[in-house]
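Q: Hi! First time doing this. I have a protein sequence and I read that you can turn it into a structure. Is that right? Here it is:
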Amino acid sequence: MRELVLPDTSVWIDFFRNRDSTAVARLSRELKSAEHLVVASIVMGEVFCGAEGAQAMGIRAQMAELRPAPELDRWDFVAAAELFVQARHSGRSVRGYVDCLIAQTCIRWGYALLTSDRDFTSIAAVAPLRLLT
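A: Yes, that's right. Below is the predicted 3D structure, encoded as structure tokens:
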């Protein structure tokens, strides 16, 4: 069975802005059937922070078709904070806690993370996070 893929916010933003990248090309291929794609609520929230009007409606329609990731529980929020601290203690920087929540979603549910955000490389150096770029 093929693994499920969770695209990060950075990939979705590049996709909706029609930017050319390896990650966007992979997302475009995956969207053809979408059976292996998962969307996390936190990623949707970040994507919608930059969308308005008709664009937001189009994004909503497209994302509504995707499999939702299960919501995190309170201990996942603690685990995400631990990822942040582990990265910092290993000399790597993670710019935001939200990336740690996205990483924890992937770790908890066994998803591969499709990303172009370098912060996830830092997280993957200290945790079992599988990255696709």
